[in-house]
Amino acid sequence: MGLAVGGVLYGASDPGRINSLSCASPAFFLHHHEGKQSVTTVNLVLLGLAGTGKSASGNTILGRKHFVSKPSSNQVTTECQVAETEINDLHVRVIDTPDMFDDDTEPSVRDKHVKRCKELCESEPCVFVLVMHVSRFTDGERDILKKLENTFGTKVKEQTVILFTRGDNLEEAEMSLEDFLHSCQPGLKEIIEKCDNRCVVFENRSSGSDQVEKLMNTVSTVLKNTAKIQ
């Protein structure tokens, strides 16, 4: 028995395959089982600029240290990588990616990363996790949603969750996530609204499972809603 959210059961088999993420219909990955739509596997694709905490967030989701995560002035993750875990009977494939949105990246290098990312998650439904530092909104992030659409298709917004790292900064400022979202910069607020306000916050130095549970609840909502896009 899988994780049921809003009448959708996550936990049965899924034979679907696609050739391109940009033309994928999320419902293609779902089938009917006793009157309920179901999936067994989901790809969580961690995207964002270098230094935002993608690898550390991936490790938090996995519940173990798998991806290399360390302070560095250079990009630490240089290739797309995947690791797997089970959460609430759902098989979760966590895909860590290099910064594919840096304007200084050679187009051939960017194309290679994008191709590999699509190859890694072509056979299962994808939820894109846009990782951003809660205390830093850079010029490079202002048009990141447009870059996502150019890379993965115009419906990417409907499959995206924003994950803010460094949740301890909010605690130190005695702010809730809701307080932060209410007071954030207009450019960031626009990105959040276009993603239908799907946001979670992580403190990657914490080993608590509550933050992962909140993320997976949001992921389940994405899977439920995108299944209706037909």
Describe this structure in words.
The chain has helices at 54-62, 107-120, 144-152, 167-172, 177-183, 186-194, 210-226; strands at 3-5, 8-10, 31-33, 36-39, 41-47, 81-87, 90-96, 126-133, 160-165, 199-201. With 230 residues, it is of the alpha/beta class. The chain has a single domain (3-11, 21-226), classed as Rossmann fold, CATH 3.40.50.300. A hairpin with a 2-residue loop joins strand 3 (31-33) and strand 4 (36-39). The protein is globular, with a radius of gyration of 17 Å. Residues 39-230 form the AIG1-type G domain. Keywords: GTP-binding, Nucleotide-binding. Pfam families: AIG1.
Question: TL;DR?
Answer:
Keywords: GTP-binding, Nucleotide-binding. With 230 residues, this protein is α/β, with parallel strands linked by helices. It is built from 7 helices and 10 strands.
Offer a few descriptive terms.
globular, Rossmann fold, single chain, disordered N terminus, 4-stranded mixed β-sheet, 7 helices, alpha/beta, 6-stranded mixed β-sheet, 230 residues
Instruction: Quickly give the structural class.
Output: alpha/beta
Count, helices:
7
Radius of gyration using CA atoms only: 17 Å
State the oligomer.
single chain
End-to-end separation in angstroms reads 26 Å
* Tally of individual domains: 1
Order of helices and strands: EEEEEHEEHEHEHHHEH
Globally, the shape reads: globular
CATH architectural designation: 3-Layer(aba) Sandwich
Show unreliable segments.
1-35
Largest sheet: 6 strands, mixed
Strand order of the largest sheet: 6-7-5-8-9-10
